[in-house]
Amino acid sequence: MTDLTRLPAADLADLLTRREVSSVEATRASLDRIAAAEGDLHAFLHVAGDAALKRASEIDQLRADGHDLGPLAGVPVAIKDVLCTKDMPSTAGSRILEGWVPPYDATVVARLRSAGLVPLGKTNMDEFAMGSSTEHSAYGPTHNPWDLDRIPGGSGGGSAAAVAAFEAPFALGSDTGGSIRQPAAVTGTVGMKPTYGGVSRYGAIALASSLDQVGPVSRTVLDSALLHDVIGGHDPHDSTSLEDVWPSFADAARAGASNLALSGLRVGVVRELHGEGFQAGVRQRFDEALALLAAAGAEIVEVSAPHFEYAIAAYYLILPAEASSNLAKYDSVRFGLRVTPEGGGTVEQVMSATREAGFGPEVKRRIILGTYALSAGYYDAYYGSAQKVRTLIQRDFDAAFSQVDVLVTPSAPTTAFKLGDKIDDPLAMYLNDITTIPANLAGIPGMGLPIGLAPEDGLPVGIQLMAPAREDARLYKVGATLEALLHDTWGHPLLDLLPADFGRSRAGATGHASPAHLVPPPGPGTEPDGGTA
Amino acid sequence: MPDESPSITADQVQHLANLARIALTPAEIEHLAVELGSIVESVRKVTEVATPDVPATSHPIPLTNIFRADVVGDTLTNEQALSGAPEAFDGRFRVSAILGEEQ
Amino acid sequence: MRYSISLGLALGCSIAESSRFARKNYFYPDLAKNYQISQYDEPIAFEGEVEVELDDGTLVRIPIERAHMEEDAGKLTHVGGATGRIQGAEYSLVDYNRAGVPLVEIVTKPIFGAEHRAPELARAYVGTIRDIVRSLGVSDARMERGNLRCDANVSLRPRGQEKLGTRTETKNVNSLRSVERAVRYEIQRQAAILAGGGTIIQETRHWHEDTGTTSAGRPKSDADDYRYFPEPDLLPVVPSKELIAELRAALPESPAVFRRRLQTEYGFTDGEFRDILNANLLVEMEQTVAAGAAPAQARKWWLGEILRIANARGVEAGTLISPFHVSELIALVESGRLTDRLGRQVLEGVVAGEGSPDEVVKARGLAVVSDDAALLAAIDEALASQPDVLAKIRDGKVQAAGAVIGAVMKAMRGQADAARVRELVLERAQG
């Protein structure tokens, strides 16, 4: 019998539509896989087993009653904990929101539900999406299923690890500076950051409002497209939501996968995001992918983006500034943690004590940095300058897209680094986002997809495709073509190579930490059926 | 300002922590002063290219005049609004005594 | 948005070609987000002027710096302190229902040279703003309900000095009268300090209606750093020329023009009209007349009984009863269904919240007795008990009828038209 957890969402959806498989079977398969893998991975903060099975059974009943359900009805899905869910805690990986169940669903979650998808639970993340490794989660890190000793990327490492390890067919993520694309790169999965405003931010716990976008995480380009079709489109609850009528991204992906000829496509390689500073195996796989594109008829052009070198600096001013304001609402008054100093205190003291106790070190660091960047006397030099850099980066993109149809870069400078390697060096951690940040600053769409394993460490490498704003469909088309070309070359999807033991044997062979050391301590929220306290 | 050394003092961090309402410990303040100094040193390079002729971008996709009708929309019930409150009384959020004044 | 532009236009302001919102960041429990959405560097309206008329008819032009939009904060209730004030409270309750409601903040430029008339000018200015806001239909602008709030800045400058003196900002001023009193108090307080060689501290001060004084609040300090930055969740507003033209065309006349027109239309003398203005009842007058009442009657009721009740209660007359109900009441009296005395009883009922004048008449059974048979029965009884009166009337001493009329009115518990009773008494006596 087929292992349902290994099927792409599109294939599972077909079986469900044809009633060859029930949603209860598919959901139970995912829950069983979660039960087996979570002890190693800790990809979930909350698993809603009973609720998922109940919803699955409702979908099965509706389908049996002859209702015409959406194409993804009955398919399980994982949800990043940054998204508000009215039936599950929504903590954004922070102690300050521990146990908080919002009174409303994020728009994207409501759209998942009405499309009949079955939420499995909430995935782990760096606290308030600040980080590139999930090590800043208040509930402990997620481990990379390719090697438990390594980071799954961040902030959306939970969603990426869950999808890579077949715990869920696909998941929702959020991307402020690469939180969908970088985890996709280091776990061998596909992730899409849509055009800013393409997907509603309503109910997505805000990190940096002018950068945040919600998007899909999956194992195939088509699956991301299918999920994007469900969650995208205008939402009056979000003023920055675009009123565009979007084409079917699934159709774009299918078109890309069925016609592998790329003649006429101009592909730009960003000179500043290529070469030096990138791991050798990353460069090698990237060059091979370019060769594959060229062989299919694409014209490869080198383009320059001279201001990208200022992107990280601008990002680490804009993000902390907006975050310092967005995170002010966690003050012990309306929801979340309240810590009262010994012997009581004024509301000011209660707020300060709560925020001291409830926020982790990275969150405090960025709030203080953002407060500094906005404070009197520094605004023009820091925040004001960063916003000008934003303009310059947009101009770089405009110039590049006047020459090419899509831009490509490696998704991340390196493969997955070791847990603990950069935790004490914030600047090194920030540099990891160098490839992904420009798209957020400019609001353009970016997609990450796997292009192989780096020869030196056997870990996944990703490529990032970028297109002009509103041209998300172009990425699905080109991405699906490249994916098909790669699968033809390899003879199978990359994740077929995922080690069944999550890389334990490797760790032993190379003398790394013992597997026992890697298992996260059991804590609230990791029970497959119990849920967060 | 960018011409000066961007090093950040513990007093500055304490002031920022007060603005941000975080009761940082003395150890955290010392540590953050050092860390912020090096981060600010690194990010201040934005000033190199941010010349007066470059306009600022605050929204990545420029839109204007996004309004909605002035009618009651989806609202939470009183119970829903208070459902996450650490402390509520008489249909309202309850907080301990307030020291400062309205602004 | 439309209200803000209309208000800006009514204040003679330029409307920004592009206007945007900013976040003003500070922690306070009445802010649900711990920042306030406001406007900072690009307000919707700027550089205007309003004409204000003082009690003696002097016209003064007040320069407007800007009018910007922002959101209201929630409402705090302090519990456990003796006074309901923040000091000494045990805990506070927060109600966010008001939070996020849009408001416009109008900032004047410093107003120079008002000298001893500054308190009066401040009141007249706030009154003019109130009239403008009401005439635009933006708000009821009731100060006591917080629809219209005023922060009064006062600074003194010795004659001959160029630099402005240190200013204070007085909050919690909840009526037009308080505006005048608070400004006067603050001028005297500052003058006393300066005369004694002291210095003024730049601070927020609180007005206390009960004692007629202000007390020191939060000093302005370097710690105030609101870290304004463009609100990323809201987009800029770029009002079209067409929209501005449409709103400009729809502007009601200015309060000054409005006043002049009404005085002419109503045919009131300057003195008569001044009384209405001083009682801040012009808008009520206009609406009462628009609802059908004669100007003289409207003036009589508003400045008479209604103002008397308002003064006794220490509230503004306009808060007691709607112009529509006043017009209805006047119609009842004019039609003879109510006497003036009954009308005053009906007014009491309406003010007490018993409903419209018609409803009060029904509920209290206050209509005039217009049944001649009932009146005649009462008259006959009265005449029979006072035979000497009957004789006097027949002798031509008509004024003697007063005693009978009084008896009849008493028997009717006042619910009769005295003129009709008089007619009937005379008829009966002749008969």
From TrEMBL, chain A:
Keyword Nucleotide-binding recorded: yes
Residue stretches making up the Amidase domain: 25-475
Region (Disordered) residue spans: 508-533
Pfam families: Amidase
Domain of life: Bacteria
Keyword set, alphabetical order: ATP-binding, Ligase, Nucleotide-binding, Protein biosynthesis
Reaction catalyzed: L-glutamyl-tRNA(Gln) + L-glutamine + ATP + H2O = L-glutaminyl-tRNA(Gln) + L-glutamate + ADP + phosphate + H(+)
Active site (UniProt): K80 (charge relay system), S155 (charge relay system), S179 (acyl-ester intermediate)
EC annotation from Swiss-Prot or TrEMBL: 6.3.5.7
EC category: ligase
Oligomer and partners: Heterotrimer of A, B and C subunits.
Family label: Belongs to the amidase family. GatA subfamily.
Purpose: Allows the formation of correctly charged Gln-tRNA(Gln) through the transamidation of misacylated Glu-tRNA(Gln) in organisms which lack glutaminyl-tRNA synthetase. The reaction takes place in the presence of glutamine and ATP through an activated gamma-phospho-Glu-tRNA(Gln).
UniProt-recorded name of the protein: Glutamyl-tRNA(Gln) amidotransferase subunit A
The organism's taxonomic lineage, starting at the top: Bacteria, Bacillati, Actinomycetota, Actinomycetes, Micrococcales
Annotated gene: gatA
Automatic annotation (TrEMBL), chain B:
SUPFAM superfamilies: Glu-tRNAGln amidotransferase C subunit
InterPro entries: Asp/Glu-ADT_sf_sub_c (IPR036113), GatC (IPR003837)
Species whose genome carries this gene: Naasia aerilata
EC numbers: 6.3.5.-
Coiled coil: none
Keywords: ATP-binding, Ligase, Nucleotide-binding, Protein biosynthesis
Protein name according to UniProt: Aspartyl/glutamyl-tRNA(Asn/Gln) amidotransferase subunit C
Assembly: Heterotrimer of A, B and C subunits.
Purpose: Allows the formation of correctly charged Asn-tRNA(Asn) or Gln-tRNA(Gln) through the transamidation of misacylated Asp-tRNA(Asn) or Glu-tRNA(Gln) in organisms which lack either or both of asparaginyl-tRNA or glutaminyl-tRNA synthetases. The reaction takes place in the presence of glutamine and ATP through an activated phospho-Asp-tRNA(Asn) or phospho-Glu-tRNA(Gln).
Family statement drawn from the similarity comment of this UniProt entry: Belongs to the GatC family.
Reaction equation(s) it catalyzes: L-glutamyl-tRNA(Gln) + L-glutamine + ATP + H2O = L-glutaminyl-tRNA(Gln) + L-glutamate + ADP + phosphate + H(+); L-aspartyl-tRNA(Asn) + L-glutamine + ATP + H2O = L-asparaginyl-tRNA(Asn) + L-glutamate + ADP + phosphate + 2 H(+)
Gene this protein is translated from: gatC
Root EC class: ligase
Family matches, as Pfam families: GatC
UniProtKB/TrEMBL annotation, chain C:
Enzyme class: ligase
SMART domains given in the database record: GatB_Yqey
Reactions the enzyme catalyzes: L-glutamyl-tRNA(Gln) + L-glutamine + ATP + H2O = L-glutaminyl-tRNA(Gln) + L-glutamate + ADP + phosphate + H(+); L-aspartyl-tRNA(Asn) + L-glutamine + ATP + H2O = L-asparaginyl-tRNA(Asn) + L-glutamate + ADP + phosphate + 2 H(+)
Keyword match Nucleotide-binding: yes
Keyword Glycosyltransferase: no
Transmembrane segments: none
Protein name, UniProt field: Aspartyl/glutamyl-tRNA(Asn/Gln) amidotransferase subunit B
